[in-house]
Amino acid sequence: MDATLDEIEFLALSSNRIAVLERLAAEKHTRSELAEATGASQATLGRILGDFEDRKWVRREGGGYVATATGTLVAEGFRDLVDVLDTERELRDIAEYLPTDAMDFDLRHLAGATITRPTQTRPNAPLQHLLTLMDGADEVTAFSHTLNDQSLRVAADRTGDQRFRAVLPQSAIDALVGDEALRDRLRDLVAAETASVRVYDGEIPLAVTIVDDVVNLLVRDRRGVLRAAVDSEHPAVRAWAETQFERYHADSTPLSAGSLSP
């Protein structure tokens, strides 16, 4: 283990080493090309390439250098480690609130996700971000433990121009029906040909909205305080969200406008 950690440290202590090995794993380069790409001096490159040759991570080929099979393995493995740590850093301050028990996909797929957090001046920024996405979308598909009045308003305002599908638990429907204005708005929404709302007999521990090509996840703490909106366009996250929606959809019943009459 110590020897392996020494090799990780050897790479991690020099961004030039990482850059050179990644470039040589991709294709052959001359020293001049490496110098131009990395900004490293010829003396530095000489030491790096010598160290790599000693480890049999690179070999000379023609007038340049190329990574060996094991050098490519190291480059790819180190890049995976960097990507994992990048993702962890992005998620660190919201990780404890993520409903990971229900998120059965590799969290590495959230690398590069857009995270919208509340601020002192915009405490509702995550929800406002989702509302903006919904307002500009052609298609919205959601499964959530709740549908707040603002999301309902946006969906109702876009009927005819937007396809809207949602699966909600009975508790969410009851909360909307308990408010006369929201009940009327919900009735108008489900009466539209382009909209469908279904009722799930059980709990939905997530608040997921697929907005065109973006999967949006609203993250709340145990008190229900909104902590972040996480957006991902990764195909694996999209596939997960679509599969989850279809599961809830199959186990739910349609909500009719008639059932919402006063």
UniProtKB/TrEMBL annotation:
Record SUPFAM superfamilies: Winged helix' DNA-binding domain
InterPro entries: FilR1_middle_dom, HVO_A0261-like_N, WH-like_DNA-bd_sf, WH_DNA-bd_sf
Domain Methanogenesis regulatory protein FilR1 middle: 123-250
Residue ranges of domain HVO-A0261-like N-terminal in the record: 6-89
Official protein name in the record: ArsR family transcriptional regulator
Origin species: Haloarcula limicola
